[in-house]
Design goal:
Strand order of the largest sheet: 1-2-4-5-6-3
Low-confidence stretches: 142-149, 157-162
Helix content: 10-25%
Radius of gyration: 15 Å
Largest sheet: 6 strands, antiparallel
Number of domains: 1
CATH class: Alpha Beta
Oligomer: single chain
Mean pLDDT: 88
Length: about 160
């Protein structure tokens, strides 16, 4: 089911977890039957662990947010069933990370989405994430008709403005 992405934008507007981490939705689309999305997150001082690198949980959260945008782009309410991440290199304070998510396949109510997280400044791969999704139904009428945030740079800024 292909939609106008209004339900995805409404989902994003209500996503307090991503907003609290300063994650921005740069792009979300549905092409050739598959979803794709790009999200960005600055690594702040509060995200750095005792090794002076970005805590892996924050990198996972960025990848998971991009995964959610991409796998919901097809028009069905979709949630994660399982996911895993491989950390390739460290991210550090003041890095800006970019997550590019692409659905690889959908079958029945299931899907597989890959997300690559890179450092914006040099394109270095920080992590590779694979999510397996499960569609649980159509978005509610309120979700598809609610005024919604456009996915654009600056959405979910750390200061709380949308």
């Amino acid at each position: 089911m292909v939609s106008d992405l209004g339900h995805v934008r409404a989902m994003w507007a209500d996503d307090r977890a991503s907003a609290g981490l300063g994650i921005e939705c740069l792009d979300v689309r549905h092409e050739d039957g598959l979803g794709a999305a790009t999200a960005r997150m600055p690594v702040t001082e509060s995200m750095v662990n005792g090794h002076d690198i970005c805590h892996g949980g924050f990198i996972f959260a960025l990848a998971d947010s991009a995964f959610a945008l991409a796998c919901n782009a097809g028009g069905s309410l979709t949630v994660a069933a399982t996911c895993d991440i491989s950390f390739v290199t460290a991210a550090r304070r003041d890095d800006v990370l970019v997550a590019v998510a692409r659905e690889r396949t959908t079958y029945g109510r299931n899907g597989i989405t890959d997300v690559t997280v890179t450092r914006q400044s040099d394109g270095a791969v920080i992590a590779e994430f694979r999510g397996r999704s499960r569609s649980v139904g159509a978005p509610t009428a309120a979700r598809t008709s609610a005024p919604a945030l456009e996915c654009r740079p600056g959405s979910h800024r750390p200061d709380g403005d949308h």
